Amino acid sequence: MNSIQRLRGYGLRPTRQRILIADILLSGPNRHFNAETLQNDIENSGGHMALATIYNCLNNFKTVGLIKQIETQGETAVFDTNVKPHHHFLNEENGELIDIDPAELKLKKLPEAPDGYEIKGFEVILRLQKST
């Protein structure tokens, strides 16, 4: 499926900017990225796109489920092209995320959800630092 078909399949109009971003993000292996690294990828491919336009496209992609945003508590939004449930290691030194297979993490018990809510799922981030 090409990027235009994929965007349409998610209900997004295939604009030039969205097609370019989809071609970069969704044609290869899953990856973690932020808007600035994506802007570098766009420029390395011979294109140009304002950071605000990139964020708008990424927010559209996130809203429809093409990508997800990982909450790392850092200043920069980090996105993931792997939208299946999985966990991450976070290297606190450089901000790098490393996928953890969900089968590798076992929890004995989850807390009860607050009244009026149910647990939809969970993703764990294990923070890493260099051992001394």
In short:
With 132 residues, the protein is an alpha+beta fold. It has four helices and six strands, in the order H-H-E-H-H-E-E-E-E-E.
Question: What are the key terms here?
Answer:
132 residues, 3-stranded antiparallel beta sheet, 16% strand
Would you write up a description of this structure?
This protein is an alpha+beta fold. The chain has helices at residues 3-9, 16-26, 35-44, 51-64, and strands at 32-33, 68-70, 78-80, 87-91, 97-100, 125-128. The model has no long low-confidence stretch (mean pLDDT 93). Strand 4 and strand 5 form a beta hairpin. The protein is built from 4 helices and 6 strands. Helix 3 (35-44) packs across helix 4. The strands form 2 sheets. The chain has a 3-stranded antiparallel sheet.
Please render the helix and strand layout as text.
Blueprint lengths: L2 H7 L6 H11 L5 E2 L1 H10 L6 H14 L3 E3 L7 E3 L6 E5 L5 E4 L24 E4 L4
Parallel strand pairs: 4-6
Antiparallel strand pairs: 1-3, 2-3, 4-5
Helix pairs in contact: 3-4
